[in-house]
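Q: GntR family transcriptional regulator, please. Structure only.
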Amino acid sequence: MKMEELTKKEQIINFARHDPFLKISDIAENVETTPRYVRTILSEANISLMELREKYARNMEQRLAGKESNLQKATVRLLKEDGDIKVSEITLQRISNFDCRELMKTHPDEELYKITQKKLIDGKPYSLQEIITYLSTDINQERIANLDSLYELFGNKGVEGFKFRSNVVQVESYNPLISTNLGLKEEDPIIKSQRLILIDKMPIGVENFYFDANSIQLVFPGELVV
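A: Structure for GntR family transcriptional regulator:
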C-alpha cells in the first residue's frame, strides 16, 4: 500500500514508528495536518516518541557492542508451554567413523568423541543434543557426570570465544537411533539442526540437535530468502 493510500491516522503512526526522532511538527507537516492532531493520534494509539527513541538507542548500543537481542536469534518454542523440563545425564562415546576435516585438535593426543544429552518435558524427551569433538584420552563418564550442559566441556578451551557457524536445518523422515532416543514412531518427523562450534575462530566441534517435530516450533528472525 502506498503512503498516500493510508489514512492520516495510519500515516502518523507509520512515521512515528519508522522514525521516532522526527518532531511532532515534522510529522504534522508530512501528513499535512496540525501538531495537535498528531499528539491526539499518538496518545490514542498509546505511542510515546520518547519511549520509541530510548528503545531505538538501546538497540543501537547493542549492535555497536556486537550483542544480539533474543529477537535476532532463532529460538525453539515448545508447543506444550506448561510442564516440568529436565535434562538427562550426559553420555560419552569414542568414535572413529566420523569424517569432518574442518575439526581441529588442540593437542595431538586427543581422540574423537561424541557427547550426548536429552531434554525432557514431563519425562518425555523432545530433543537430543550431541557434540562431536576432540577430547583428551583421559576423559571418562565420571568426569562429565556433574556437568549441567555439554558446553561446559569447553570451559578449559576458552569459552569466552565461543561462536557458531554454518547452521543447517532439515527434516528427517526416519532415523532409527534418534527416533528410539526420542521415543518416536517410524512415521514421526524429526527436525535436525547442525552447526560448527568455533573457539577463537577455530572449528573444534560439530553440534547436532534433533527435535521431535510434533513438540516444537523453530522461530527464525528477520526475512526468509528463498
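A: Brief note, in case it's useful. Helices lie at 8-18, 24-31, 35-44, 49-64, 141-144, 176-182.
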